[in-house]
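Hi V.,

You were right to ask for the full record rather than a summary. Here it is.
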Amino acid sequence: MGEKLKNTVVVLSIGLIWCILALFCWIKSPEEISISERRKLEQLPEFKVQTLLSGKFMSDFEKYAQNQFPHRFMFRKLKAYTRFYAFAQKDNNDIYIEGDYAAKLEYPLNERSILSAAQKFGYLYEKYMKEKELNVYLSIIPDKGYYLAGQNGYPAMDYEKLFDIMKNHTEFAEYIDISDILELEDYYYTDIHWRQEKLMKVAEKIASALDISKELSGNYETIETDVPFYGVYYGQSALPLEHEKIYYLTNDIINNCTVYNVETDKTTPVYDTIKLHDKDPYDVYLSGASPLLIVDNPNAANKKELIVFRDSFGSSLIPLLLEGYSKVTLVDIRYITSDYLGEFLTFDDQDVLFLYSTPVLNSSAVLK
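Predicted structure:
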């Protein structure tokens, strides 16, 4: 076979393969979510002459084709293996592996974002709390890069500067430092979150600041779930990471608490074990992300109430504080606008805790 004919065959073969794959993107039923990546996938854009002429249709279709590409996860794995093992690169999709731990590069520090978060908390304080008899607290949860990145030669944000900015611009709140009592082993290997069974020391320190230490029994039954847990970094890295176990801590007080979801008008237990079989088993804690949850503790020793402004890290910590309160309200202002809170909450004599992780503070545009 002549060289020219050989090249023609190769070009036509590659072209044919890509045409078949492109056609497959058109005719296959699109998947709604990527379970491995924990995100929604782009859907086929609606065909309109206007969007076709403007170029928007093809732009949207390109995103759709990338998301719905046949055997996409297999190709993502091939790319990840090539980057890590063939080219010895340190990360893939900003995910790096150090020892048994997978983590995301949280870098650099976005000072404007940190200030914006502090201003948002200040706005909430001025609007709802300033003239009330409230005890207000702030605690910041470092992501595991705080204990992993800089020590192993990876780029790391200036965490201490982040803490200082937040403390200096939230003087209305008493700061509870938990960074010195956490360690790398308190986090999942394959996920961003911390492990509830490791958090008693954190709960005790926060309880001491909130003056509810005497209410916490410290007596919990540790439940091992039977569902293998592949954290968010398993899908994002596309590397062969080992699954883990999820545990949760419970006792009679927690078992008798109820969680009311204002958005869905449904009541669930503190640990929603049905969620263990959904796309993210971490949602077993308080049923996952929700704008507004109200936890009632009918067996509380007092009538104290707590309002927590939080992200997903708070879902696994708050159950360990329930013994100290008759009612705990959890607010996630990633999903509810701050100006609407007065329609659902009455601020009078509660304790108020701002509990946020460093990744959210460093990307605080998500706070409404």
